[in-house]
Amino acid sequence: MLFVECKGSPYEIGFQHGQAAKSQIDCCISFYAKLFLKNCKIEWPQVLDHASKFEQQAKSNWPAYHEEMQGIADGSGKQLLDIVAINVRTEINFGLFSDGCTALAWHTEKRAWLGQNWDPKNADYLRQWMTEQKQNLIITKITQPRKPTILQVTEAGIIGKIGFNSAGVGTCFNAIRVHGADPARLPAHFGLRMALESSSVLDAVNQLESCGMASSAHILLADPATALGLEFTKSTFAHCEPDAEGRVVHANHLLKEHPGEVDTVWLKDSLQRVPTMARNAEMLGDEPGWEAVSALFEDEQNAPGSICRTQTKETGSATLFNIVMDLRSRRAVVRLGRPTETEEVVELQL
């Protein structure tokens, strides 16, 4: 995986990202352009028209993120709206492309575990899809004044995703398909970046709830002391608190009530993956090690729609990477590919 180190002002961070990952950003934009055309029958210029609404909001409300996206555009030789479009891909046409995955936070006496499989779901099965998208994954290290340093796994050109920071705050992400989006609110990937710039779970929750979120999803937040699942839609928030053993398990459906919003439960296997992960974790005892926690994400019960997913016409997705973090030691291990068929292992440390 490409490792990109970025530091300085928002624009400088973006420019370094764009320059280093130029070919991956080219592929990422091309990939999304094909998906929008195939699934939604809209050409890229129409996608950019939708992105312009979010670009205006970002410039007014989150200028640092706007400057960083401008830097990515300049560094990669793209237009600003190209970069905005991939950062708000979910909100532009909700349901086109979503992150289907299983996430776990677990605080034990010695460890603050946080991990997930990332299984992006394409609404229209493509044989070559998995390989194409996997090539666009990169790791960014972001150092900026007066904010924690960030290490994250992201898609090239996207400013916020899955990872942790030097304050010990970590994020995982699950798509949830509730219809509707509000372009005046914070896009999901901006929210992930905002959480990764936070000093604690409480800080992250306060910031995200004060902004409001543009669409529905779940962000699993953890720090060395606590964990919280933050479910949201375009109009609601709900908290998934740790159980008696200090665990939060989530997948791709709402676990809490959200008045006025209806969950489509777009991945039916999500209903099985949550209890499967909870049961498997319960069997590990009070203080599992790295190997045992990592093995939780290799489970293939109820295949192909299992925790470790296999791509078929039925599932439309496969696990592209797994990440396991210990937020107390500021360490993570990333496995590229299905965790039962690992292609590359990258260790991260802050």
UniProtKB/TrEMBL annotation:
Q: Which InterPro entries match?
A: C45_proenzyme-like, Peptidase_C45, Peptidase_C45_hydrolase
Top-level taxon: Eukaryota
Which stretches make up the Peptidase C45 hydrolase domain?
Answer: 106-340
Q: Which NCBIfam families match?
A: C45_proenzyme
Which protein, by its recorded name, is this? Peptidase C45 hydrolase domain-containing protein
- This chain's source organism reads Curvularia kusanoi (Cochliobolus kusanoi)
